[in-house]
TrEMBL record:
The keyword Glycosyltransferase does not apply. Keywords: Cell membrane, Membrane, Transmembrane, Transmembrane helix, Transport. This is Sugar ABC transporter permease. Gene3D superfamilies: MetI-like. InterPro entries: ABC_transporter_permease, MetI-like, MetI-like_sf. Residues 1-34 have a biased composition (Low complexity).
Amino acid sequence: MAAHSVSSVDSAAAGSTEGSASRARASRPVTAPARRNRRGSRAERLAPLVFLAPAVLIIAGLRLWPLVLGINFSFTGDGALNGLVVGFANYLTLFGDPLFLSALRNVGLLVLLLPVAVAIPGLLATFIFLKVPGHRLYRGVYFFPAVLSPVIVGAIFNLLLAFDGPLNALLGGLGLGPVDWLGDPDVAIFAVVGVHVWATFGMALVVFLAGFATLDSSLLDAARTDGASLPQTIWHVVVPSLSRTIQFVFVTTMIGMLTSMFGLVYVMTSGGPEGSTYLPEYYVWIQQGQMNQPALASAASTMLFLIMLVVGLAQIGVLRRAGKED
């Protein structure tokens, strides 16, 4: 009985000692290593923001702020009304201008031709990835036009597509007759877009090849084992596996068509014939550089931005939906 009492006293004393020790630890100030760990975790959380800050500031200062200023300027007048708020008058002028309406129709045409502009580098990248004979040579040849200046490309094709040029001479030899590639309003825009696709698909080709580097080769092996044809392999294996890459190429190609064809249009057609090759960016340059109407040009630039935003978001939505269905 005495022994039991002694053990109880010892247990109580031990519990009291542990409680005192825990209270002492709780009241003890935070040590230097603990403070360093807290500082380290806070620094780790802030590090990505610090690295992103320069890029965000550059984009905000050189892209977003000028965009806001341009949108604001589009609601002011030109000439005698310079600096005065005119509301939506510039936008009403745009939609009453046949040249701007022609530019909008050409934007719709570009959207319709976009799948072709993406499919061409996609198919060529597929052939290179499958290592068709001469694929190393083709890789360099296909990319070569991308390093040429649009002015040089336009000058070359002005000679090739002239009414008395070599292409019409070839067609004449085949009995097909000459085509006024750059003088026919129904043909000129297709000629300019075709030259643009030829001159720029090398960059999309590089992006597709980078996407193929992430493709699981076992899927291709399984398709070959199951006896799938090349079109079936492309549609059921390659396209679903490269859905992200295809989305990126679609958006960047569309942006390139809307914002990078000024050089070709200026050199090849100057917006003609009859305004049939006008695009929004060329219209902006005409209003700003030749007509001295910066407010109207700002309104056209704002419309171009909205067009790219809507078309880009629509493309991403459609491609994502198609990817989920696959």
